[in-house]
Design goal:
Layout lengths: L25 H21 L6 H8 L4 H6 L3 H23 L8 H12 L3 H13 L4 H25 L5 H21 L4 H14 L9
Helix pairs in contact: 1-2, 1-4, 1-6, 4-6, 4-7, 5-9, 6-8, 7-8, 8-9
Length: 214
Amino acid sequence: MRASDKPGEDHGVPESRQVTPRRPQLRAVRRREALLDAAVDLLGEGGFAAVTHRAVAGRAGLPLAATSYYFSSRDQLLAEAFALLVRRELTRMRAAVRRPAGGSAAAVAEALTDVYAADRLRELGLWELYLQAGRDPALQAIARTWTDGCDEIVASALRGAGYPCGRSEVRFVAGLLSGLWVEDVVEARPDSRERARDAVTRALTTLGPPGSHP
């Protein structure tokens, strides 16, 4: 080593020939996205068991080898599909939440239950993976992102209507909504929306009339 050399210097490759890292090719990015889209669709249609490498590749119209190329395991594929499903559902809910006219308990309850009710099959897939997170630590951070996002949506609705929106009030309302939501997607009762509105209205009345809290 010459005295003028410094640790870490590369004297063997001319600067003009040094290789710089490439950005992922657009084709590869699109293929990976297509596989995740397919996995999300299959989650909604058939749940956890429906997401296999073969089924995902077939739905995406890609070779079977593509799934193992982009995802090291089925567990990774499921985790990333769960994360994508959570992001999409929270985005939909944030866009759908509205400030109810009048701010009464019944109006706020209707606004919240309408936001939470959407595509039953997609929600079945989401809640199935949420419950699976109780057995799979790799999914727990995604499950927490879902819960935190739902809390933010409830807090926004309560704040906009003049209700107290501290942590305990938000958890009270959001926890009730989540339980009602799971009940709805599992049991599919024809009157589930009305039952949920009544329960949430009753819960909101315990917080006091809107605007009565600083």
